[in-house]
Amino acid sequence: MIDLSKIDCFDLDDIPEKGAFLLACIRRDRQYEHYCKILGEIERRYAHLLKVGALDEKALETYRRLGIEGTPTFLIFQDRMELSRILGRTNLERLGCLVGEALPVI
Known about the structure:
By secondary structure, the protein is of the alpha+beta class. The protein is 30% helix and 25% strand. It has helices at residues 32-45, 60-66, 92-102, and strands spanning 20-26, 50-56, 73-78, 81-87. Helix 1 (32-45) packs across helix 3 (92-102). The radius of gyration is 12 Å and the shape is globular. The relative contact order is 0.24.
């Protein structure tokens, strides 16, 4: 499972300068563990291609800077440049498609 121990202190500087990164903006609600499992599976499947991180709703300044208007939101970055995002509830297949569509660019 993905290590979410630092999500409360996540900063945009934590997005790698080089390489692909999936950022999940999620709430600590009843869906939290569900999304942690999905992110863990994405991290396992694509570990050789991208890193995965999460941010919760407490990081309001980061949300504002990224233009995030709701949760959950999932963003794919390459070299700190946003490539794509999904807003709203999702599942492993849909999130996998988001990553898969971005990876040819990566």
